[in-house]
Amino acid sequence: MSSDKKVRVAVVGLGFGAEFIPIYQKHPNAEIVAVCRRNKAELDKTADKYGIPKRFTSYEDLLKDPDIDAVHINSPIPDHGPQSIAALKAGKHVACTVPMATTKEQIREIVELQRRTGKVYMMMETVVYAREYLFARELYDKGELGRVQFLRGSHQQDMDGWPDYWPGLPPMWYATHCVSPCLALLSKPGAPALAGKVSCYGSGRIREELVPKYNSPFAVETATFTIKGTDVCAEVTRSLFDVARQYRESFDVTGSKKSFEWQQVEGEDPVVHTKNTPEKPLTELEIPSRVKVPDFAHLLPEPIRTFTMPQAIQDADHLSFLQGGGHGGSHPHLTHNFLMAVLGDRPAFPDAPTSANWTLVGICAHESALAGGQQVEIPAY
Ligand SMILES: NC(=O)C1=CN([C@@H]2O[C@H](COP(=O)(O)OP(=O)(O)OC[C@H]3O[C@@H](n4cnc5c(N)ncnc54)[C@H](OP(=O)(O)O)[C@@H]3O)[C@@H](O)[C@H]2O)C=CC1
Ligand SMILES: O=C1CO[C@H](CO)[C@@H](O)[C@@H]1O
Question: Which residue ranges form the domains of the chain, and what is each CATH number?
């Protein structure tokens, strides 16, 4: 990208969201013009730290500011849908953290508004820019995996102690971290792989006081879904409460020549299994081997390359980073892709219809679990 145009960005929600401020500030094609959160003292603290002049405690006021081209939303989950809709209506480009929304109606409206306004919408899904995913993708693109036979994702996380919109949340309403890599891997530029039908079972039960919050009883939800235009199916598992499991956001791809498996425990390396063949015989012990996943900072503009590394994490004590292992160095990749999409250099990935499909897998999966595992067709918007 040789353009020296700068996208004028406002970051909304300054917990996880604050992490992106220094990346935008260092990016040659961005300028952070404003930040927003409701708590004035905390707002000023962040704005002072990064030297940002415009500060909004009201999101509605921010949207009226003509000096802002794009908003990057990092507010609580129930706000993602309504805030994205309001921003598109106000003529802003939108980057929004996961999930896109929590209802089919909001998702449909975002997709329709994006089409009507021509503004960029991108769901800022970290996993599909994490180095583990980029490594598996590279193996696939080089033909090393062979034919993809199956895909699996899991996201297990203990949300006790997290803010008040989490307790009781249906696990599949926050499934994009495990759904997205399965679909992204089979996507080609301009031709995203999309889920078709999903079937899901709920398992176990969360403690009684959490159940009425979202009328969702399940401790674990596990779903299988079809991928349109392929003979491949994927399986995803999610848990949020009352499950003994270290944090794990995982992605496995089973291929005819090689398979990639995410590490079992944080801090280990992933495993690549190689098929034993007469041409290249392998003993059982030689089939699996641990691999060191490389970093993919070389894909980024030089000034933001350091942000793939843990040392560049501003708030390393935020639960997100402790539990998410720093999100595989994905933040600068997401930031760069969004800015390039706004400048017309490439399509957003995921764009609005793709973000919708990734999020709808989870919404429809929860619907299926409540109906005892009945298959649900994922709507195409
Ligand atoms: N890997 C990933 O993709 C990750 C994604 N996330 C997503 O990011 C979101 C934010 O996570 P996190 O920072 O942990 O959440 P928090 O609940 O800790 O922070 C939410 C932020 O949004 C602000 N906020 C809340 N309501 C509004 C509003 N109406 N207008 C403007 N700002 C508002 C809050 O400030 P105030 O109360 O002062 O308004 C606060 O700064 C979550 O919804 C989660 O889905 C989080 C971590 C990692
Ligand atoms: O690292 C993380 C911590 O928690 C968040 C909420 O589930 C995740 O989105 C994230 O990937």
Answer: 7-125+302-348 (3.40.50.720), 128-298+361-377 (3.30.360.10)
